[in-house]
Design a protein that fits this description.
The chain is of the alpha+beta class and about 240 residues long. The chain has helices spanning about 45-55, 60-65, 90-100, 175-180, 225-230; strands spanning about 5-10, 15-20, 25-30, 70, 80-85, 105-115, 120-125, 130, 140, 150-155, 160-170, 205-210, 220. Strands 1, 2, 3, 4, 5, 6, 7, 10, 11, 12 and 13 form an eleven-stranded mixed beta sheet that branches. Strands 8-9 form a two-stranded antiparallel ribbon. The radius of gyration is 18 Å and the shape is globular.
Length: about 240
């Protein structure tokens, strides 16, 4: 029997697998899962702990692959959905982490924001640092912050909201969210830097592309955007 094209957690939750090779698995991360170390037990929604426990239990999706190890290479915020890369060995974690650290991993997001930008395309290079007044959050910090760069492109205008394409060239915590909020364009559903929305957070990682460090092949992993666009009123964007 072939290995399934999804991960089924003990909770019954199904997570689609978007891409797989000898070194990595890329999944379509659902909302509500935190990417924190296995030992961090302050939440029942620890994705690393859920995956590790499922592998240890020899659940079919893992057993059919003879999988002994799986760890996230990068992070997506808990409520952000989309492409997430997981490595099958500690060596693969190191190799793919270097791609992120050396900015050789191309990341593409869709963001639905409140308001409308002044330009159709722009780049934000505002430095980011921890917000001392709000634990765990970030802020624009021109003096002490770390360099951060994101390019944005307007895709669609709607009634009160806009659909943007975001390409972060650095990987700071909450980078896209803070850069947009600082530009007066908070992401719809952003409880940290804007306001809540019953549809959830309007941010989705739709593409990850890179040159594989082992095979040297060009890899492009994409996650579907239909449900996301439909939920936020931009289903017409699918027609292009």
């Amino acid at each position: 029997m072939p290995a399934p094209s999804h991960i089924e957690l003990p909770t019954g939750e199904i997570i689609p697998i978007l891409y797989e090779d000898r070194s990595v698995i890329a999944i379509d991360k659902p909302p509500g899962w935190m990417l924190v170390p296995f030992s961090w037990q302050k939440t029942t929604r620890n994705l690393q702990a859920a995956l590790t426990s499922s592998i240890a239990a020899r659940d079919f999706w893992a057993r059919s692959r003879n999988l002994k190890y799986l760890r996230f290479v990068h992070r997506l915020d808990a409520e952000t959905t989309g492409v997430l890369l997981l490595a099958k060995s500690p060596g693969a974690v190191r190799a793919y982490s270097q791609l992120f650290e050396n900015r050789r991993m191309n990341k593409l997001y869709l963001a639905v924001v409140e308001g409308a930008p002044e330009s159709n395309e722009w780049t934000c290079r505002s430095k980011l640092g921890p917000d001392p007044k709000r634990h765990g959050l970030m802020k624009i910090d021109p003096r002490h912050g770390k360099p951060a760069e994101t390019t944005f492109r307007l895709l669609r205008k709607g009634p009160g909201t806009c659909l943007l394409e975001a390409r972060p060239f650095t990987g700071r915590t909450h980078q896209i969210r803070v850069h947009l909020a600082a530009n007066g364009l908070p992401i719809v559903g952003d409880e940290l830097y804007g306001r809540a929305d019953p549809r959830g957070l309007g941010l989705r990682a739709i593409e990850l592309s890179y040159v594989d460090p082992f095979s040297r092949r060009r890899i492009c992993i994409r996650a579907g955007s239909g449900e996301f666009l439909d939920a936020f009123g931009f289903s017409d964007a699918l027609k292009e």
